What we know:
The protein has helices spanning 3-24, 136-161, 168-194, 207-225, 233-248; strands at 30-36, 39-45, 48-50, 55-59, 66-73, 81-84, 86-88, 91-96, 104-113, 116-119, 126-131. It is elongated. It contains five helices and eleven strands.
Amino acid sequence: xxxxxxxxxxxxxxxxxxxxxxxxxxxxxxRGKIAVDGSLVRFRLPRSGxxxxxxxxxxxxxxxxxxxLEYKRYKTDDPWAREPLVRRDAELVGFLPKxxxxxxxxxxxxxxxxxxxxxxxxxAPVVVRFKGPVPIGLLIIHIIVMFAGMLAAxxxxxxxxxxxxxxxxxxxxxxxxxxxxxxxxxxxVQKYAFGVxxxxxxxxxxxxxxxxxxxxxxxxxxxxxxxxxxPARATVLIASVVTLVVYLVPHSLLGSExxxxxxx
Length: 264
């Protein structure tokens, strides 16, 4: 396989898997569209907010549309609170009260138009999780390193399929980047965002942390299989495929969650 084609395939596969993970994650905004007074309106309901301030929910709706927010803390017996949406120019705006890091709210947005009460996105409430602010520099470096690790893992798999290439150097790169991105930078990001360094096995079921652990272990196996410079193509290919499958699991699924019932 030509070098240019090799890297084009590696980058395309990595970008596709990263994009899918981002679009299907539980913190990606819920999007949709609805007909209001004969006009089609597109909406975006946030599913992630920062614990430093109330979360704005804005809908691009002109007069005379009205509406309200109703919300409650996640997994509690709290009654639903209701707040009217306020008109601000061409938008209806409401605010969800800020929560501690890893706290979650359930909320629904209702439009009132023509005497009808219209719940956006159906009756199922939206779950929004709050997090602490993460230094942007740390976050950018973490994302770059994790993306580079995914790229190295993909390249290793492609090299394992090419008899003219030895995947060993890609295996070393993938393992090193996963360690730096997943076990050094990742815990730092999580500490800022949710107050803990690690919430995977054996301390919790956070799939993001557990995905990191699984991918690290599979690349350790690939490293051992390829000792003394052996290509270990079958093992490397399995490690690459497992990494791809693991990273297709939505990011932040079963992530850190504040237990309100345990708070004073």
